[in-house]
């Protein structure tokens, strides 16, 4: 069972997400929190596999909560929830370690799919939305991205192809079909890319890829 923590200051939104989680036999609710501080406390006290985190909350907001959650000894995968009135908060959440983000008007089935995807260790990268966010809120001055950009120079041509495909939101299976590689080989390439770039997940790797072409 994938244990899901719902974090939002709006009780109505929490109720909707709680009811949605209950529709999937592979998911169970690990808890609810109305702010980032309560979310971190919950994740410390019980097992949480995936946290759905609102970006704008009083007290500890979604960015700070994402960073704190990702620093836990056994961190959950974090999906940030936001409206499409995008701002620098989205970039900050991705840079803090979020495995993806969803708009609050995302169809329920897509939210459930995202939970399963990030629980499996992948990122939820919507190609259109991710490209928009990364291009609109691109911050080349960010220290982590600057360092990763330099590290990208050490990637092999094949690894750069894989990185480009990751930035386009492709899964390992799709990358394998595109580049005629076994999925296990793609997975090995992705692992080395993340290690070489010094980033935590595929979303941060995508940020680096956009920096290279930006």
UniProtKB/TrEMBL annotation:
The keyword Transcription regulation applies. Keywords: DNA-binding, Phosphoprotein, Transcription, Transcription regulation. Residues 148-213 form the HTH luxR-type domain. This is Response regulator transcription factor. Residues 3-119 form the Response regulatory domain. The keyword Mitochondrion does not apply. PANTHER family: TRANSCRIPTIONAL REGULATORY PROTEIN NARL-RELATED, TWO-COMPONENT RESPONSE REGULATOR. The lineage of its organism: Bacteria, Bacillati, Actinomycetota, Actinomycetes, Kitasatosporales.
């Amino acid at each position: 069972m994938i244990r899901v923590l719902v974090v939002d200051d709006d009780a109505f939104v929490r109720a909707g997400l709680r009811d949605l989680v209950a529709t999937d036999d592979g998911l169970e609710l690990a808890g609810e929190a109305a702010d980032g501080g309560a979310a971190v406390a919950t994740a410390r006290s019980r097992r949480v596999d995936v946290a759905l985190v609102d970006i704008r909350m009083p007290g500890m907001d979604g960015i700070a909560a994402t960073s704190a959650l990702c620093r836990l000894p056994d961190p959950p995968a974090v999906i940030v929830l936001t409206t499409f009135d995008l701002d620098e908060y989205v970039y900050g959440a991705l840079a803090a370690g979020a495995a993806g983000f969803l708009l609050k008007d995302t169809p329920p089935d897509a939210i459930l799919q995202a939970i399963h995807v990030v629980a499996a260790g992948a990122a939820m990268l919507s190609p259109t939305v991710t490209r928009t966010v990364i291009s609109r809120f691109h911050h080349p001055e960010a220290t982590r991205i600057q360092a990763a950009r330099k590290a990208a120079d050490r990637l092999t041509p094949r690894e750069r192809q894989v990185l480009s495909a990751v930035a386009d939101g492709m899964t390992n299976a799709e990358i394998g079909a595109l580049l005629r590689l076994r999925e296990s080989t793609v997975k090995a390439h992705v692992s080395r890319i993340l290690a070489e770039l010094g980033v935590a997940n595929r979303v941060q790797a995508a940020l680096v890829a956009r920096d290279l072409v930006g």
